[in-house]
């Protein structure tokens, strides 16, 4: 009796060790990317595909030649399919027990198959590994599956498998009377009868949409075509997407061709608007306002002052000006003479200001009178508050500006601790302006409120774009952008049609009663820069007079690249590409992914920036040649996204540690690197966490010197932007940093 117990104990021990050896690899669940997406019905669904005789014959021939059973072959096909969907190193699939086994004597009715797969493997090598995987899984398959599930990190849910969404069933060899265990899983069932193979997929339509399930059959068919022609083909050579789907992804979803004035500069187009509507109000600040003609006159005078300073076409001029009419004047003056403007927020710490000016090679700075004292005396400046500047010849300069000149350089967060400058050309802004006109139907509207800081690229959509479309721009003062009372007054008194804001700012503004009331006056809300939350959508949709647009786009592709009119709070998408913009969702191996598959969002087209200023290495890494469209470049955003069936895109977060706080792009490593330069600080970990709908940054640090929180914050703000002042700091004991931050 004791001997029998020992044998059972040793067997259970070896079974446990086998499953632990697999689960200790930290495997992720093999999920179907479209689970819960775009559901339009409930009930049980089933789709069937009968393979052609020649296809079935080729499979049987391969199995006979390589001494394989058909189950091993079909299992390998599904392995490749799930790898192509996820590009995960380990793929899990569950299978039922065999028909020959006595169910009543077994602890399990299904068994997980877990296999490592690599893109460099050949399909033949996958088959050989699969045979071993299947043999071992059934050998150790009587270890309780609930205990196997418990080995999975973070497993808490008991209603579905933590390992996989897929069950593979062979009607020829597997038990069939246990299917109710798989209610939340997709069952891929195959049967061989009279040398003909039939594949069916059974699924819950409340979890999986039929169109996506049908695409699985198409992808299986494409894999079969590849491997039956060449069993030694490498996994990364197998293309699961067929010609019809490629056409949808490359052509139909990217049907964005749009005519625009590609040979004109921003200055030329602005002068066209001045000619069309000279007496219309162009810009308002406080109680001051300028017509298009008056603004143009001031711009021309300042532009001549710049020319007199021998500022040449193609150079960079700093804009270090308080929010004012002069800020707009300075920007347009630079653009008119073909020099790029470098926007510098007056709230930036002087260390960052000096870095941006020196790194960009800026030779001249347009500056407000009271900011002059902040700058080193070595910098060349023009005081835009000097009234004598505007007494010069105010006629148009008549310059022919190359629209491939850089229009502006905006510095964004960098993981090294130093920001990087993105170069956007005139042509890209001109295309963007036309695309916004079409996407938002700007001809219907007359005014927009400019609340955004000059150093944030969406400022362009609140100033240059509306001016090129003949609208009135109303500029708020510094600090007014989060005061609901003041914003409401400006909306009402200036008859504002459009406002643009990050969701986090909208959340703050909605706390004010008068701001809520002012929404009855508005017509369009543009929200972007960070995730648009359901509570904000629900709030805005209460106002039937307002159209809400969710906007998406990195600085590197000229402000916004996708737009979606939001009509429901059920699923919030980032929409479709704007004019002359193409999108691609690619895998970590740079393969085009099918509709619905989550991968990296890449953007191509007219809006793609020239690159990073003085950073050729990073430019080559992030801006690559577009493999799907000759002579175009493509920007890899680092954002995870998926195509929906209707050609709209849904965003799923980041590949890296970049986050968005109040619309600002922040590299967590940048903050860590800055904090590590503070004397005595030895270890730092910065994480982003959401609380009450607002994203906060938490910094956990180990320091040999005792600092107060205010001292650390002050040191940080000397090096970087004010948004980092919202950091929450925790001083912790040495060697506990990695464990500590994970628990917060």
In percent terms, what proportion of residues is strand?
15-25%
Low-confidence stretches: 3-8, 735-744
Integer count of domains: 3
Structural class: alpha/beta
Question: What CATH architecture of the largest domain do you see?
Answer: 3-Layer(aba) Sandwich
**Rg, alpha carbons:** 30 Å
Give the CATH level 1 class of the largest domain.
Alpha Beta
Query: Quick one: biggest sheet?
Result: 9 strands, mixed
The level of helicity is 25-40%
Count of helix runs: 22
Q: What's the mean pLDDT score? A: 88
Number of strands: 32
Question: Termini separation (Å)?
Answer: 51 Å
CATH topology of the largest domain: Rossmann fold
Strand line-up of the largest beta sheet: 8-7-16-15-17-18-19-20-21
Shape: elongated
CATH homologous superfamily placement of the largest domain: ANL, N-terminal domain
Describe the structure in your own words.
It is built from 22 helices and 32 strands. It is elongated and about 95 Å long. β30 and β31 (694-703) form a beta hairpin. It is 33% helix and 24% strand. Mean pLDDT is 88; it is low at 3-8 and 735-744. The chain has three domains: 2-240, Chloramphenicol Acetyltransferase, CATH 3.30.559; 266-291 and 408-643, Rossmann fold; 658-743, 2-Layer Sandwich (GMP Synthetase, Chain A, domain 3), CATH 3.30.300.30. It is α/β, with parallel strands linked by helices and 744 residues long.
């Amino acid at each position: 009796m004791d001997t029998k117990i020992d044998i059972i104990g040793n067997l259970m021990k070896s079974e446990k060790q086998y499953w632990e050896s697999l689960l200790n690899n930290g495997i992720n669940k093999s999920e179907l990317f479209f689970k819960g997406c775009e559901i339009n019905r409930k009930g049980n669904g089933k789709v069937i595909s009968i393979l052609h005789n020649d296809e079935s014959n080729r499979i049987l021939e391969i199995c006979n030649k390589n001494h394989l059973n058909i189950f091993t072959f079909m299992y390998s096909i599904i392995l490749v399919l799930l790898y192509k969907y996820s590009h995960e190193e380990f793929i899990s699939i569950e299978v039922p027990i065999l028909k020959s086994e006595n169910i009543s004597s077994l602890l399990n009715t299904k068994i997980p198959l877990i296999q490592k797969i690599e893109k460099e493997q050949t399909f033949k090598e996958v088959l050989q590994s699969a045979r071993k995987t299947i043999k071992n899984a059934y050998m150790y398959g009587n270890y309780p599956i609930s205990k196997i599930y418990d080995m999975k990190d973070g497993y808490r849910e008991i209603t579905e498998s933590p390992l996989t969404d897929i069950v593979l069933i062979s009607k020829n060899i597997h038990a069939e009377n246990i299917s109710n265990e798989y209610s939340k899983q997709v069952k891929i069932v195959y049967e061989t009868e009279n040398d003909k193979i039939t594949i069916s997929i059974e699924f819950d339509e409340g979890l999986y949409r039929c169109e996506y399930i049908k695409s699985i059959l198409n992808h299986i068919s494409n894999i079969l075509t590849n491997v039956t022609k060449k069993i030694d083909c490498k996994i990364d050579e197998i293309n699961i997407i067929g010609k019809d789907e490629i056409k949808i992804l490359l052509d139909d979803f990217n049907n964005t061709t749009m005519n625009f004035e590609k040979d004109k500069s921003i200055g030329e187009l602005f002068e066209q608007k001045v000619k069309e509507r000279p007496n219309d109000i162009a810009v308002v600040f406080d109680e001051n306002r300028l017509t298009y003609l008056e603004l143009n006159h001031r711009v021309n005078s300042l532009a001549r002052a710049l020319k007199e300073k021998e500022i040449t076409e193609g150079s960079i001029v700093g804009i270090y000006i308080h929010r004012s009419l002069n800020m707009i004047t300075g920007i347009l003056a630079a653009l008119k003479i073909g020099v790029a403007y470098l926007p510098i927020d007056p709230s930036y710490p002087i260390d960052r200001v000096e870095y941006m000016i020196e790194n960009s090679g800026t030779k001249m700075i347009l500056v407000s009178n009271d900011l002059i004292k902040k700058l080193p005396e070595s910098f060349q400046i023009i005081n835009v508050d000097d009234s004598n500047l505007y007494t010069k010849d105010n006629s148009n300069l008549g310059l022919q500006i190359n629209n491939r000149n850089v229009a502006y350089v905006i510095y964004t967060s960098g993981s090294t601790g130093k920001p990087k400058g993105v170069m956007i050309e005139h042509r890209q802004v001109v295309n963007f302006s036309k695309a916004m006109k079409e996407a938002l139907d700007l001809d219907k509207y007359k005014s927009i409120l400019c609340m955004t800081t000059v150093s944030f690229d969406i400022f362009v959509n609140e100033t240059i774009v509306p001016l090129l479309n003949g609208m009135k721009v109303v500029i708020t003062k510094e600090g007014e952008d989060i005061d609901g009372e003041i914003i409401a007054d400006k909306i009402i008194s200036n008859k504002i049609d459009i406002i643009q804001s990050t969701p986090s700012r909208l959340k703050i503004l909605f706390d004010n009663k008068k701001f809520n009331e002012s929404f009855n006056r508005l017509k369009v809300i543009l929200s972007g820069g960070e995730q648009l939350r359901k509570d904000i959508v629900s709030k805005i949709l209460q106002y039937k007079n307002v159209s809400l647009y969710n906007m998406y786009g990195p600085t590197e592709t000229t402000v916004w690249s996708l737009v979606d009119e939001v009509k429901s709070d059920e699923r919030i998408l980032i929409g479709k590409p704007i004019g002359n913009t193409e999108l691609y969702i690619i895998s970590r191996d740079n393969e085009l992914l099918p509709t619905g598959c989550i991968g990296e969002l890449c953007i191509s087209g007219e809006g793609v920036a020239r690159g990073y200023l003085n950073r050729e290495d990073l430019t080559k890494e992030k801006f690559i040649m577009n493999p799907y469209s000759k002579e175009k470049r493509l920007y890899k955003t680092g954002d995870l996204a998926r195509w929906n069936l209707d050609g709209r895109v849904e965003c799923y977060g980041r590949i890296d540690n970049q986050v968005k706080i109040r619309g600002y792009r922040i590299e967590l490593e940048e903050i860590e690197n800055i904090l590590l330069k503070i004397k005595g600080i030895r270890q730092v970990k910065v994480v982003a966490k959401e609380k009450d709908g607002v994203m906060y940054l938490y910094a956990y640090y180990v320091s040999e010197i005792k600092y107060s929180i205010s001292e650390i914050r002050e040191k940080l703000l000397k090096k970087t932007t004010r948004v980092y002042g919202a950091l929450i700091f925790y001083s912790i004991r040495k060697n506990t940093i990695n464990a500590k931050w994970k628990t917060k």
